[in-house]
Task: structure prediction
Amino acid sequence: MLGVEGLAGPLGRAALFVGLIGAFFGLIAAVSGTRNADEKVLRLVPRFATLSCVAAISAFAAMEWAMITRDFSLAYIQKVGSKSTPAMYNFTAVWSALEGSILLWVLILTCLTAGIVFKYRTRITDPMVGWAVATMFFVGIFFFIL
Result:
């Protein structure tokens, strides 16, 4: 299939690494910007939230692609996938085991973080918003590491 077999794994891992970096720098920007009331630094927070969200979407999409195309070069697909399972069920099988469930949760968390950041971007200098976003980035880092 166009020579892309086995590509979902490296792309997914790269996306997870990019998401981890985005969440890490988002945490640093949120904490330092809130502590120092530095609006210039706090304006970077939406960019890091977007980066983390896009990376999580990419990682989840790579895993879905691997599951739907039955890319058995990935150990996770070997564990939860099956050639006899219809594609619709393979789509949902991604989050049927622990690793896929964590991937789904990091996707949900990063999308919620991005949503909160964009909803309150005009109030990003409010300490309550800054610390809430910093906490969300911290939890995101934890899930990206898992």
